[in-house]
What does this fold into?
Amino acid sequence: MCSAETTEDRETWPAVLKGWRRKCPNCGSGPLLRGYLKVRDHCPVCREPFHHHRADDGPAYLTILIVGHIMAPLLLTVFTTFRPEPLILFTTFAVGCVALSLYLLPRLKGVIVAFQWARGMHGFSSSA
It folds into this structure.
């Protein structure tokens, strides 16, 4: 049961923002994910199917890219400015990297699935 609107009617940015919130890109109220990273087969509210998404490794690559671009300059700045003890520096940035990665990963998965939905990619087109 697909949505009545065509892919031309689907706006990308509202869908991506709904995906960031881990909500259904169609209705915005149903949960997109079941658990931490598992995408639901369909939205429990509007019944939009999600079983044909192809997020694959995209969220992991984007998470690594974002975390690396945030933490590497921050590490350099903290090291050159404050010169903390190596164990403290390592512990702080290890916890920061893990926390930021755990925060971003499900949100970026929602963004990628919502982007695919909005653009009608990988079976999300309503012409099928």
Summary: The chain has one domain: 7-119. DSSP finds three helices and two strands in the chain. Residues 86-119 form the longest helix (34 residues). The beta strands are 33-34, 38-39.
